[in-house]
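Table 4 source record.
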Amino acid sequence: MELIKDAFERVTKKQKLSCSKNQEVLDLIDQEIKQTLQKIQSNECASQVDFKSTIAELKNKLKDIAPVSQTESTQKELNLALSKYPKLLEKSFNPDIAKAYRNIEFDAHTVNEIIGSHFYRQGLFELGDCFLSEAGEPESTAAMKSQFQEMFQIVEAMKCQNLEPALKWAIANSDKLKPNGSDLLLQLHSLQFMGILQKGDKYGAIAYAKTCLAPFASDHMAEFQKLMVSILWAGKLDMSPYFHLLSKANWEKVIGELTRQFCNILGQSYESPLSMTIAAGVQGLPPLLKFMNVMVGKKNEWQTMKQLPVPVELDLYYKDVKERHKNLQMSLLSFRYRFSTV
């Protein structure tokens, strides 16, 4: 992907350079023509001879500008870059990826669970139901939907700046959030507190702080002090140093933390296993395809190979493949156990 990105940047750079040069030449031509017209219209060309000499002078100036030769070099460079780019795309995106295919037995039930779970994670509940139904999976497999539906209802409410469902869920699961090292409940109470201040209700905010924020003071003193000082800006938070606490970015951060903790409590990873598998596969496929080009005519060896003879480098995020696979298996087993009696 880096090669494609670099090639694209070279094409856009050449295009901008060519466009800039063309505009520069056009501006010079336009300037000379306008000056000549102004000279003619101001009656400086009293005779036919003067008129012809003025036109001849314009012609010489345009010849000196040499628009074709000035733009020719940049256009050639652009054409060269453009001709190389499609070839690179074809080379990168149109390989026969079937070369790297191996006959591996998959647990169809596990794969269906992963795909169905992915749809539910995206909020595509009808699509998830349809997929699991057509895949012939039992209704108990779709039971995970109710948990993700609850999560999406909370998230949608937060997007409308309604924190009540989120606070209710966080309070009910506070005993599970604390061992995870999450301060989600404090973040939610902080947003609610700042919302009260934004309305100008200073005394209401103080009362809310005493009831809901004070229990967090000992462990989060710096955050607590910041919130208390913000009371001085009640009703005018948009002019205060603390307005970022109500920014869209902060809301999205809290929504992300809630989603992460919700999945964690469900026994699910925050990232979709399907998305993670595909992303890792996309990174690992190019070296495998190169290897298979060397292994032409040795398909049987490839099918029976126990270990890859070439390293497949992945980002640090995907390095611990065995541990991630183990977590995924544990997650699926947890779901099966949880919903087996549904």
